[in-house]
C-alpha cells in the first residue's frame, strides 16, 4: 500500500464523495444491505398494506409498468426488480424503509473505512463544504452515515445528492451539483472508486481522484491521467479555506 501523500490541491472549497468502494466497503451494499431487504420485501408490504407508504409504492409500480397491480402482483414485481438489480424508484423506496428498521433495531451497522471520519472532520474544520453523491437515494445515504461503526457521521455533510441530480457518468450532473453548491467547478473535488465517474467529474471541470481500496478492486480500470490513491489521509490541501 502506498503511504505517500499526494501533491497538495489548491483552491478546493468543497469535497464531494461517493460511498460504495470509497467511504464504505463495496461489498456492504452488495452482500449485506440488498440481501437483508430482499426476503423482507413481501412481508413488509403485506404487513403495511393499508399504510400510505405501501399505497404510494404500489402506485409507483403501476406508473413504472403502465398497468394495475394487486398486492401480490406488486410484491412479485418488486422481487423481480430486486433479483435483476434494477434501480427502480418504488424498489429503492421500499428497500430504504426496510433498511431504516434494520438500522433502528441494530441489525444493520454500516462499516466505514477508518481513515474516513478523521479526514472528514479535518476538512470540515478547515471550512470545506462536504457532500455525498451516490446512486443510492438520499434517505438511504443518510441512514448509512447515521448508523456507522464510527457513530453518526451525518453532521459532517451539508449536502446530499443522488441520481435525481443526473447520472454519475454524465458531466452535466456534476455541473448541476456545482451550481447547487454555488461554487465554480474548479473549486470542487470528487472522490470515487469508479474511473468513469472520475472522468465525468473531470469533464465538468472538477478535480477528481480515484479511490483504489486494497480490499475492493475498482469497478473500472483507471484511465490515463487519473490519479489513484488508497486512503483519504493521502489527500493534501494547499491551504486552509478562508
Plain-language structure description:
The model has no long low-confidence stretch (mean pLDDT 93). The chain is of the alpha/beta class and 242 residues long. The protein has a 6-stranded parallel sheet, sandwiched between helices. The two termini are 33 Å apart. It has helices at 26-37, 41-47, 52-65, 71-83, 89-104, 116-125, 138-146, 171-181, 195-203, and strands at 14-17, 129-133, 159-161, 188-192, 207-211, 228-229. The protein has 9 helices and 6 strands, in the order E-H-H-H-H-H-H-E-H-E-H-E-H-E-E. The chain has 2 domains: 14-24 and 110-234, Rossmann fold (3-Layer(aba) Sandwich); 32-104, Transcription Termination Factor Rho, Rna-binding Domain, Chain A, Domain 1, CATH 1.10.720. The longest helix is centred in the middle third of the chain and has 16 residues, at 89-104.
Describe this structure in a few short sentences.
The protein has 242 residues and is an alpha/beta fold. The protein has 9 helices and 6 strands, in the order βααααααβαβαβαββ. The chain has a 6-stranded parallel sheet with strand order 3-2-1-4-5-6, with helices on both faces.
- Shape verdict: elongated
Query: What proportion of the residues form beta strands (DSSP E)?
Result: 5-15%
Would you list the SSEs in sequence order as H and E? EHHHHHHEHEHEHEE
C-alpha-based Rg, rounded:
19 Å
CATH architecture of the largest domain: 3-Layer(aba) Sandwich
**The named CATH superfamily of the largest domain:** HAD superfamily/HAD-like
Biggest sheet, open or closed, and with what strands and sense? 6 strands, parallel
Give the CATH level 1 class of the largest domain: Alpha Beta
Order of strands across the widest beta sheet?
3-2-1-4-5-6
Q: Structural class of the helices, strands and pairings?
A: alpha/beta
CATH topology of the largest domain: Rossmann fold
Task: Show unreliable segments.
Answer: none
How many structural domains does the protein architecture include? 2
Estimated helix fraction: 40-55%
Q: What's the β-strand tally?
A: 6
**Mean pLDDT over the full residue set:** 93
Described by its quaternary structure, the protein is single chain
- What's the end-to-end separation, in Å? 33 Å
EC number: 3.1.3.77
Protein name: Enolase-phosphatase E1
Cofactor: Mg(2+)
GO molecular function, one term: 2-hydroxy-3-keto-5-methylthiopentenyl-1-phosphate phosphatase activity
Amino acid at each position: 500500500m502506498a503511504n505517500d501523500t499526494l501533491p497538495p490541491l489548491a483552491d478546493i472549497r468543497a469535497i464531494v464523495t461517493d460511498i460504495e468502494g470509497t467511504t464504505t466497503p463495496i461489498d456492504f451494499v452488495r452482500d449485506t444491505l440488498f440481501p437483508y431487504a430482499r426476503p423482507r420485501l413481501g412481508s413488509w408490504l403485506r404487513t403495511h398494506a393499508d399504510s400510505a407508504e405501501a399505497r404510494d409504492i404500489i402506485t409507483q409500480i403501476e406508473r413504472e409498468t403502465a398497468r394495475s397491480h394487486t398486492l401480490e402482483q406488486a410484491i412479485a414485481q418488486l422481487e423481480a426488480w430486486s433479483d435483476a438489480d434494477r434501480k427502480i424508484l418504488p424498489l429503492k423506496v421500499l428497500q430504504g424503509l426496510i433498511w431504516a428498521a434494520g438500522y433502528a433495531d441494530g441489525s444493520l451497522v454500516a462499516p466505514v473505512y477508518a481513515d474516513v471520519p478523521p479526514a472528514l472532520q479535518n476538512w470540515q474544520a478547515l471550512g470545506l463544504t462536504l457532500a455525498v453523491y451516490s446512486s443510492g437515494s438520499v434517505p438511504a445515504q443518510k441512514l448509512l452515515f447515521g448508523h456507522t461503526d464510527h457513530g453518526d457521521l451525518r453532521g459532517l455533510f451539508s449536502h446530499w445528492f443522488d441520481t435525481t441530480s443526473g447520472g454519475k457518468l454524465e458531466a452535466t450532473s456534476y455541473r448541476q451539483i456545482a451550481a447547487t453548491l454555488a461554487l465554480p467547478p474548479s473549486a470542487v473535488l470528487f472522490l470515487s472508486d469508479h474511473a468513469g465517474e472520475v472522468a465525468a467529474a473531470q469533464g465538468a471541470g472538477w478535480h477528481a481522484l480515484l479511490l483504489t481500496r486494497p480490499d475492493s478492486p475498482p469497478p473500472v480500470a483507471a484511465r490515463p491521467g487519473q490519479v489513484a490513491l488508497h486512503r483519504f489521509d493521502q489527500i493534501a490541501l494547499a491551504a486552509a479555506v478562508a
